Amino acid sequence: MGAQNTAAMIEVKNLNLSFGQGNQHNQVLFDVNLAVHGGEIFGLVGESGSGKTTVLKCLAGLFNHWQGELCIDGQPLAHRIDRARCRQVQMVFQDPYGSLHPRHTVETILEEPLLIHRIEQRDRRIDTLLEKVGLGPQFRRRYPHQLSGGQRQRVAIARADSRTTSSVAG
Ligand SMILES: Nc1ncnc2c1ncn2[C@@H]1O[C@H](COP(=O)(O)OP(=O)(O)O)[C@@H](O)[C@H]1O
Ligand SMILES: [Mg+2]
Q: Which of 10, 52, 73, 76 would give a disulfide with 36, using CB separation of 3.0 to 4.6 Å?
């Protein structure tokens, strides 16, 4: 069975979102619809300020005043953010300078979500996560400023991978 015949991994239906009240009111998303299947690479293209990041922030639970329907792996996403939802969707931010704590080592950065989600065998898992993104165990002791931009983004991807089934990038 082809990927297109299975339920979408990420589904956005009639998504609407506005910021501000009264004369500050600004509708940013107007009935956005998209579906991404498992294993599919999906590019969302639009001019700057058109709402791409806002769609992803709704999926990641960073905005919860949206209207419409969001589904991950066939399950509707609630507006409320709970631990299960946090495990389900992770965001890899555009700017890895801003998304990694400058005073934490790679090891600490990767360990934090494992602790929060009470995932065991953390030490082994950190090595596996690093290996999956092409970084060796010697990177564990490094700080973000000691990494290249691409290596930092790999750490951000490893962190997103640590307890989720789906990641969104933007
Ligand atoms: N937290 C916010 N409060 C108010 N306006 C916002 C907020 N975040 C984004 N916006 C506005 O929403 C619009 C879409 O932004 P964004 O989704 O970041 O665009 P992009 O397509 O470049 O990723 C822009 O006009 C931006 O100024
Ligand atoms: Mg953006």
A: 10
Q: How many domains does the chain contain in total?
A: 2
Nearest to 135 by CA among 155, 121, 149, 160: 155
CA distance 136 to 36: 31
Q: Which of 39-43, 89-93, 102-106 has the lowest mean pLDDT?
A: 89-93
CA angle 142, 93, 115 (to 5 degrees): 55
Q: Is the CB of 43 under 6 A from ligand 1?
A: no
Shared domain for 72 and 114, answered yes or no, is: no
Reported as a single tens digit per residue, the pLDDT across 5-48 is 568 999 999 999 999 999 999 999 999 999 999 999 999 999 99
Specify the pLDDT at position 1.
46
The pLDDT assigned to 24 comes to 95
**What residues make up the domain containing 140?**
106-169
Does residue 72 share a domain with residue 14? yes
Q: Which of 16, 54, 58, 64 to mutate to test the pocket of ligand 1 (most atoms within 8 A of CB)?
A: 54
Shared domain check, 75 and 21: yes
* Domain end residue (candidates: 47, 81, 115): 81
